Fold:
Amino acid sequence: MDAIVRLDRKRETVVAESSRITARNRVRADARRNRERVLVAARAVFAEHGIDAPMATVARRAGVGVATLYRHFPTRDALVRGAFAQQMETCARALTEALAVPDPWQGFQQLVETVCALQREERGFPAAFVAAFPESMSEEAQSRQRVERDFTTLVRRAQASGALRADFHPSDLVVVLLAHCGLVAALPDDGAASRRLVAYLLQSFRTDPANKPLPPPTALTLRSLPIATDSSRGQRSPRT
Amino acid sequence: MDAIVRLDRKRETVVAESSRITARNRVRADARRNRERVLVAARAVFAEHGIDAPMATVARRAGVGVATLYRHFPTRDALVRGAFAQQMETCARALTEALAVPDPWQGFQQLVETVCALQREERGFPAAFVAAFPESMSEEAQSRQRVERDFTTLVRRAQASGALRADFHPSDLVVVLLAHCGLVAALPDDGAASRRLVAYLLQSFRTDPANKPLPPPTALTLRSLPIATDSSRGQRSPRT
DNA sequence: GTCCAAGCGGACGATCGCGTCCACTTAAGA
DNA sequence: TCTTAAGTGGACGCGATCGTCCGCTTGGAC
Structure:
């Protein structure tokens, strides 16, 4: 494998394509450490300045050079995906767990609440979730298809049990998640608004609206909104 | 008024401050025309590339120079506000009209649906709505206070009539609008998702869920999402 | 200890958007 | 028609971000 054309710059690519399998274990310790540092820094910076924050800011926060960052994550998308891979996996796992819950409605409810809680707790994750959707939720198309099939199964079961309204459509999950993403992205606060929205939506999904008490209302008024202050504006056009 | 200090550069400012009232009618015809052109172009460009689109793009689309644009709208915020002032006024008017509807629940429902329809139809407006919230919905703090008071009145009435659930809080309107903004911003499509969300929420706001049929579900699946395609990515990081 | 390539950092040129400045154009009153 | 200042356009300087390039450092095999 070493006899292949060595046009200097091509070298790296060739190695990457041909011998990554054998080199897997030969990744330098400092490289692995730096990669991890970058991911931690990326989550912090993205949470603070939004996922459009300058790559250099992430690098500085991580204590590495920009080149190091670009080597590990050639594009911003790759970095975003890397930074929130864990959260994405948790989402996927939540679905599996939901299917395992005996009462299908409880499973359904738990799934929605878990995913929304995840979005509300990790700042920057909602934006990443929305931006990377087609590729995300899992790495490959096949896996995505499985997620879809599993969720449909969950919906069918919950409807069969009589708890989930018959006209709920699996695509409504996307609607809920995107709306929720928008809400938490606009309101980086304690999550009261998020909880409130989720409670409302879950109630309207039930066949029998048992009318459980809602979580407490938010302190929002039309005039005392934390939006468009310097901090949240930074979400859109970040500075160093 | 002409005898005031004329330090060359100060001139414009002085005139603006002292004689704008008399000059109101003396605005040149071409200036007014250009202003209008800029507004039209701004709406088009914002709809296409998001409200972060380069100012130069708006100017080019309007067929004017950048200086002209900056003269009429010194900041991006001013331009955004100008571009969507009409929509903002429509929102405010919708509240007044909702109060005039005999059945308070119908008024409430109509208000939510009107505002959401507006957000869904004018691309770029949702982002402007969220970004400019504290200043928007009306020009002055006093006016904002009136909006808040009127909406609270509407809510009280609807609750007294028994149709709106007692634990609905006026701040929930903010929650609904922000969530809806997020949804339509993420999904620049035909509005099916928006209608679906609004219907769900309105149902969960009712005391007696008459369970009217929902609007048709969206065609969304977990894998065939129009998000993160080139067109919607342009919403976030616009190019010329 | 020696070696060497994987890995590293930071400088650098390119690109882009911003907002100002200034010389020119033109609307509109006399 | 003449005058004039309001209005215009585009070039330009500035600063920020991008992603690459290249010489140096260091992990780890021997």
User: Anything to note?
Assistant: Residues 12, 26-28, 30-31, 34, 59, 64-68, 71 of chain A lie near DNA strand C (CB under 10 Å from a C1'). The CA atoms of residues 87 and 118 of chain A lie 7 Å apart. Residues 85-233 of chain A form a domain with the Tetracycline Repressor; domain 2 fold (CATH 1.10.357).
